[in-house]
């Protein structure tokens, strides 16, 4: 047998407890053929000496937004005055919609309004996306097309969706270009697989034909698509199947191949903390606002139960503790009606978890899909709006692991920095960008944090049999690092030297 590739001179952290370390990796037909003595005597078409570099399984981002991240809009990130925003938007090329992203209402000298935007837009519609993805500011040209909404231009959740729907759809060519832009970025950060969190309809969707763009793009990374629950519809299935609603042809989680597949069905139960719309049992500190549920409980419960009956793994967006309460109750009801022991339903974000909710998450076998970088970027703000008692409950780590709960790492890119090494550092250090300790008792070890971004995310995406560890027989996805995260004092700054997908280098840092 001749190997396709042999990697030598590497310090490999395999994430496989049966063989935690290795110095040689043999690759054949896109898979790990063996390690060290298993391949030492085998010839190879190519041998690459990595010169002592550290090798990990490729990182898996279990919740991200590739099309949104790659979208070419006017960037207003960090602008804190209405004058600065308007100056950036003035003279936007073209004749159609003016779209901007990165708006942060929390830092503005005064909130941007429709009247402000009217000054630079004429008759052109303007959509300024809040960085949370759960709000926007629009001008009067947009509001006139939404007569049922009374607003000064600031729209959240379903009102935001109504405005966004006016702009949709993006073309398949646009979406394809956006996907390639994001794929280049994530490969440079060591990410080999992404779960796209919501296509087809809903807050993040780009087109009802969105899956076609992923087929057309033929990306150099693996992608799993979460289909929005909004596309569930009544089906005339045999009553014995007990499936009242599904998507066309009965497709559900698992359809596809190792490069592009259907993952979980995405549902939203509340909003976000940046927009102050995440649903809480007690108001945000210093306010009478406790956020909001996304829809009526009846509608959301029906979507969860019907999606469960139709064979979907569910990815349920729930950030606030009230939304998590609802999610736990609805999943328990779905499992009572039709037990599926390995349904492996996920809680996307799982942001504010009360102590009494931890055991229920464990008992239901739910997988929290967390975004640690939220607390690096926004930890100071989140701590203030939660208050002293609740801040330690944010985006937990240790409390989950101690109860046997599998934690999956993700970014929610572009809401926050998507680099897994940044997130791993936060999970270990639990300090915000401002230096504030955020739930320090939730800190975990470096290896546990790496596991969240490899085996944990592979498990959440039902891919642990082929991804997540450098084990013979698994797909040859790996990342080459310039230092060992286990001993580094600056994990986030470790350079990614190369990224491999299926035995081929898809990214290599130029010297």
UniProtKB/TrEMBL annotation:
Q: Please list the residue ranges annotated as the Amidohydrolase domain.
A: 46-505
| Pfam families noted in UniProt | Amidohydro_3
Xref: InterPro entries: Amidohydro_3, Metal-dep_hydrolase_composite, Metal_Hydrolase, YtcJ-like
Give TM segment ranges.
Answer: none
Example of a GO MF term: hydrolase activity, acting on carbon-nitrogen (but not peptide) bonds
Q: What is this protein called?
A: Amidohydrolase 3 domain-containing protein
Q: Which organism is it from?
A: Lentzea jiangxiensis
Lineage here is:
Bacteria, Bacillati, Actinomycetota, Actinomycetes, Pseudonocardiales
């Amino acid at each position: 047998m001749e190997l396709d590739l042999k990697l030598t001179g590497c310090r490999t952290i395999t994430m496989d407890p049966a063989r935690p370390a290795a110095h040689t990796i043999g690759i054949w037909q896109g898979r790990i053929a063996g390690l060290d003595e298993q391949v030492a005597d085998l010839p190879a078409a190519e041998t690459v000496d990595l010169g002592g570099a550290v090798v990990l399984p490729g990182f898996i981002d279990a919740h991200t937004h590739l099309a949104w991240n790659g979208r070419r809009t006017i960037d207003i990130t960090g602008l804190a005055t209405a004058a600065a925003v308007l100056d950036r938007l003035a003279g936007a090329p073209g004749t159609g919609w003016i779209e901007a992203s990165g708006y942060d209402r929390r830092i503005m000298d005064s909130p941007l309004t429709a009247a402000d935007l009217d000054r630079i837009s004429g008759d052109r519609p303007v959509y300024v996306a809040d960085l949370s993805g759960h709000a926007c500011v629009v001008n009067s040209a947009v509001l006139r097309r939404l007569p049922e909404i009374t607003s000064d231009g600031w729209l959240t959740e379903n009102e935001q969706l109504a405005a966004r729907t006016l702009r949709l759809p993006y073309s398949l060519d646009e979406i394809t270009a956006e996907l390639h832009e994001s794929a280049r970025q994530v490969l440079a950060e060591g990410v080999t697989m992404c779960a796209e969190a919501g296509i087809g309809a809903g807050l993040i969707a780009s087109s009802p034909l969105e899956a076609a763009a992923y087929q057309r793009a033929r990306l150099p990374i693996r992608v799993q698509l979460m289909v929005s629950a909004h596309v569930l519809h009544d089906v005339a299935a045999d009553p014995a199947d007990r499936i009242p609603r599904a998507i066309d042809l009965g497709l559900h989680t698992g359809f596809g191949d190792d490069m592009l597949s259907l993952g979980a069905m995405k549902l939203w139960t509340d909003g976000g903390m940046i927009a102050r719309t995440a649903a809480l049992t007690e108001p945000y500190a210093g306010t009478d606002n406790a956020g909001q549920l996304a829809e009526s409980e009846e509608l959301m419960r029906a979507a969860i139960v019907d999606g469960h009956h139709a064979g979907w793994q569910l990815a349920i967006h729930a950030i606030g503790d009230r939304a998590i309460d609802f999610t736990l109750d609805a999943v328990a009801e779905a499992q009572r009606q039709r037990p599926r022991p390995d349904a492996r339903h996920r809680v996307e974000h799982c942001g504010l978890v009360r102590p009494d909710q931890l055991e229920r998450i464990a008992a239901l076998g739910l997988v929290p899909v967390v975004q640690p970088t939220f607390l690096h970027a926004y930890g100071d703000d989140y701590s203030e709006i939660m208050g002293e008692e609740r801040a330690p409950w944010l985006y937990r780590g240790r409390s989950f692991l101690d109860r046997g709960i599998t934690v999956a790492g993700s970014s929610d890119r572009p809401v926050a920095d998507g680099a897994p090494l940044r997130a791993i550092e936060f999970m270990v250090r639990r300090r915000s960008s401002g230096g504030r300790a955020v739930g320090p008792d939730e800190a975990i070890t470096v290896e546990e944090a790496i596991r969240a971004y490899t085996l944990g995310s592979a498990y959440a995406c039902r891919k642990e049999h082929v991804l997540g560890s450098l084990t013979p027989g698994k797909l040859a996805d790996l990342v080459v690092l310039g230092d060992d995260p286990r001993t580094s004092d600056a994990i986030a700054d470790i350079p990614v030297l190369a990224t491999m997908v299926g035995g081929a280098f898809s990214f290599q840092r130029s010297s």
